């Protein structure tokens, strides 16, 4: 069993869902993020947040995958201050919904003053509602941005054990682990941070508090990055218990701090039944044969 704790499923297809389930992914976490172009109205955030706790959760269930999400104002769109202020007013309505396992992904993009302001405000929100925090670290000035994210979290009295610092690399991992945070790693295909490098990192640092994810979205990315990396780890001689920690157990431990994520959610999930509808809508198109599992089709663990 695998968990992909960072994947933007609204951008993925039903083929992806089928392949993920086949590969052993039982649960996914979808962080609220930007959509590739800036939103211009607060209503567009509202509908997006509703999709994350509504339709997408249902859609995943139709393919045998449990869907959770994180809620937050992403750092890119924090720079539109009037809009960001409205999103901050909206967020409290969503952070307590079923399946919301963290505030995120929040943090820095260009490390502007506005990003800093809304990052801090959302750290305070996380404390108020007792949720872990998922930090998006910038792709430019990665090291500086990552250290700053942690400095500011500590300034706000946050407990590192409640924070997942994501998109790490060799340059940031030591500091993040030494300071007591969870360290997320995103496996992007055809880039520097591929599965091979992930294997080396786990060899060097061990499996404690390391979490592997795909961050698959509308860009070139791979929704099977977690199981593929696990396979490579096994091939390269990493012990099975370590593989399970970085591709399943650690994510569960970190995000279950929310009280919203339990192993039974997938171990005791109802069988797949694609005849189900949500708001009158189904994943089926005319004439398609629904997949309906009997209890005996479930894999026992
Ligand atoms: Zn993301």
TrEMBL record:
Transmembrane segments: none annotated. Signal peptide: none annotated. One of its GO terms (molecular function) is hydrolase activity. Keywords: Hydrolase, Metal-binding. Residues 271-301 are annotated as: Disordered. Belongs to the metallo-dependent hydrolases superfamily. PANTHER family: HYDROLASE TATD. This is TatD family hydrolase.
